[in-house]
Every structure is written in C-alpha cells, then in structure tokens.
Write a structure and sequence with these properties.
- Helices cover 39% and strands 20% of the residues.
- The chain is of the alpha/beta class.
- The protein folds into two domains: 116 residues, 2-Layer Sandwich (Enolase-like, domain 1), CATH 3.30.390; 228 residues, TIM Barrel (Alpha-Beta Barrel).
- Helix 2 runs antiparallel to helix 3.
Amino acid sequence: MKSLEKLTFDSVTLRAVSIPMRRPIVAKVGTYTEWPFILIDVRTKEGIVGRSYLEPYLKNAVRYIGPAIEDMAAAFKGRQLAPLDMYRDVIGSLHLLGRQGVSVIAAAGLDMAIWDALSKAAGLPLCEMLGGTTGKIRTYNTNGLWLLPLDKLAAEAKELVAEGNFSAIKIRLGRAKLADDLKALELVRGAIGDDVQLMCDFNQGQTLQEAIWRMHALDNQGLVWFEEPVVFDNYAQSAQLARELKTPVSIGENIYGPRSFYDAVRAEAADLYMPDLMRIGGVTGWMRAAAIAGAAGHPLSSHLYPEVSAHLLRASESADWLEYRDWGNPIIAEPFQVVDGHAIVPDRPGNGIEWNEEAVAKYAY
C-alpha cells in the first residue's frame, strides 16, 4: 500500500443526464419513465479526480442543486481535502438555513466525491479506506414490481430473480383494494416460490388508520419488511406500527443527516433502517448513522446508490441488505456484478465509479 498523498481541492464539474428506464417506476410517489442524475467530478491540484452522483428524482432539480454544490465548492478551493473537516464546516454553516433538503443533498454529493479522491490517492477501495474489506454483500433486486396491473407481476417477478440469481426482490403495495395487494403477493409468490425472500414498500402512501388495518391484514404473508407505511417523519405513528406488527417496519431513505437518524432511533420509529446517501450526508453522514444503528442493534440496509452503498455496508457494523438497481448502469464504465444474489464490491481504488463518456454525452440535457 502506498502512502496517502495529501490532496488540495481545486474545482468541481457538474453534468446532468437523464436515462430512460427499462421498467418505468409506477408508485405512490409518482410515475417516472426516465431517471435523472447529477454527475460530480471533484478535481484536485494533484490531478486526482473524485467522482460521485446524485439521484434528485426531478430533472429540473439540477437548476437549484447545482448552484448549491458550486457555492460550497468555492469555499473549499485551495484547502486540503479532508472530508470530516469539510462536513463539519458545511453542516455548521447550515444552522440558519437548516439541515434538511437541498443544502444537505449538495453537501452529500461533494462528500462522496471527496472520499473517492482520497481513496484513489491511497490506492485503496473505499471500503478499505474506511477500515473494511472488499467482498460480497447480500443484495435484493428493486428494479421492478411497481404498482402494475396484476397480470404482469408474475412474469416480471421471475425476470427479477433471474437477473442475478437473486434470493430476494421487492414489490410495491398499497393498491386501492386490500384484496388486490393480497392477490399481487399470491401471484408473485407463486412465480418465485417460497425460497426467494420478498420485501414490500408502501412509499409513505397510507394514513395511520389505513396502515393499521392493512398491515395487520398482511402481517402473516411472510414479508421481510413493511417499508415506509406512513409519512416517514411521523416517528410516533411509525413506532406504533413497529410495536404492533410481527413484520419488521423499515424506514430511513428520507431521513436527513445522522442527527435526525438518531432522533428516529431514539423514538423507536422502526425495526430496520435504510439510509439514502443523498439525504444522510454522503459517506461521512452514512458512517455516523451506521455507528448509531450498530450501537442500537438495528440492521442497516441501503437505498439506491448501490456502487457507493456496497462499500459502506462492507464497513458497517450491522450491515443487512444492499438495494440493487441498474438505472445508472449505462453511464458507469464498469458497473459492479451481482452473482448469486450478492453484489461483488470491486477491488479497485475509490468507489469504483468512472464515467462511460459516450453514454454521458448521449443522455446529457
């Protein structure tokens, strides 16, 4: 292992792409036929480039996230690349603006790219830079089974399992009729058999009354978890469901920063947690949340960002499941492999993200 080279922050380059989805998202949160990304390149005076991306859901989000990233980057110019110091300074500067929304998202994008640059300078994969090792992490396929017509679910469930010999996949529930949710589960279970584990996501689509009624009716279906049954930040309601139900309740993708994560854990808002890198605060925010989850004994999974999340799960005490999606694969030069239901964290410096420039040009907007 070579000695760690000190790096100096020079500049940031941002690009926006939008990639057509092989299987459009149809969920309570909306319908998406394409998926936008903000590509972030942090350049150092020493010539090393750190890379990351954000998934802002909305194409136009680059109009306001981009300037926020550039504003933060301007304050770092000429400074030694030190993600913990930079995270502290950015979060400290947000006391008046607030530690939610665009400000944290912008900070997270920079933080991920900075960690990538440092890992490259050290010649280490990100997970090894954080004290872990490369290897595999168990993975579930989230690439389909949205709120589709019932007659399409069985065939798609088989496809999802076959894509990487997955041992777990996720379905979205919350149809107008409980009977249709039950039928959806029956069709999917009939297609994939009893050995494939099945998660479900309600995308915050239920009122507490609806959730109590529906979750109890679904509580004997052998699901791995009920994800976000109610609005994510109503910790009291989520905690009530977690206490009453046999099936574990999972939240986390919409929690901003480790302090709010700690609030959720203290409120016993869920049994399981799945941070989102964009909202939790990048690599630095994730590792602080992972320490909280580990100390509290809560299993920790991921939400989106599989290339980076896989590294972080390899360095997290209570690592559980990686959520796999391939929506960004066209712009990644070497997407990681999924073999027998496990993501293989690559043994190459950084987070493993390099751009497929031909695809970036094709999908740019």
